[in-house]
Amino acid sequence: MGVSKDKIIGAIVIILGILIAVIYTLGSIVDLIWEEVDPFSHGVDLTSSWLSEIDLFNWRYFVVGPMWLVVMLIAIIAIWIGYSMLTTPAPVPLEELEEELAAEEEEIAKEDE
Fold this sequence. Notes:
mainly alpha
């Protein structure tokens, strides 16, 4: 039994959703925080409270934060759709369905006689 086309597409959608979430997080939020804290530029001791160096009222957080949330929401929806495609069983072929309906009609006709 081979893997259906829908399952392959679902797996690709999951992988792309995860990649987008990780890359966007690293490229936006993590980069923005690292730019402010950057231990290599002004000798921050990472064992001390480096969180106190982050300016929470920086205008860039108010731009990047909501955009990050929107991208994460889209990535989560894509992952959910991919998971649904991956785990949903393939539909019954129409021929089999028609055969079952014909068999049921024959049984009903026999019972009526």
